[in-house]
Description:
Elements: H1 2-31, H2 40-59, H3 71-91, H4 102-130, H5 133-139, H6 143-158, H7 163-184
Amino acid sequence: xxxxxxxxxxxxxxxxxxxxxxxxxxxxxxxxxxxxxxxxxxxxxxxxxxxxxxxxxxxxxxxxxxxxxxxxxxxxxxxxxxxxxxxxxxxxxxxxxxxxxxxxxxxxxxxxxxxxxxxxxxxxxxxxxxxxxxxxxxxxxxxxxxxxxxxxxxxxxxxxxxxxxxxxxxxxxxxxxxxxxxxxxxxx
Length: 188
């Protein structure tokens, strides 16, 4: 258990930075509402990533089911959580001087955002596998379909500037994430 405590501390630091970055980005918009025009789809992606990061932190409690830890598992998890931070940073850059609004910024970074989000779902599949056969079997009901749909949607969204595709995708992801949380994790 001592190893897991050490690992969850490092993961918690990186995830905490992800949440901090997202919250800081939203607060900047609130503090300076006239500085940059808000883009609803961008804010919905920020909400989705916030919800996903908090949810990830919650379900990582299942890492206690891993009986043998090695450096490769640890390294994988660190890279996995860095992906959450990277997505938060992509949604809220430190400098917006080169962009007239968040829509322009989001569209200029959409390929990076959606491709990294697709990688996040691949990491999630491996993370689920790491937690053991009992956990993996429980997830098999809907999980593979969820992963495939999310990855395909990310790859498609990365290739289009269509605002309706981006809006529909984020609304579908939020809806499914809420369903997933309510269905699988409301009872601990």
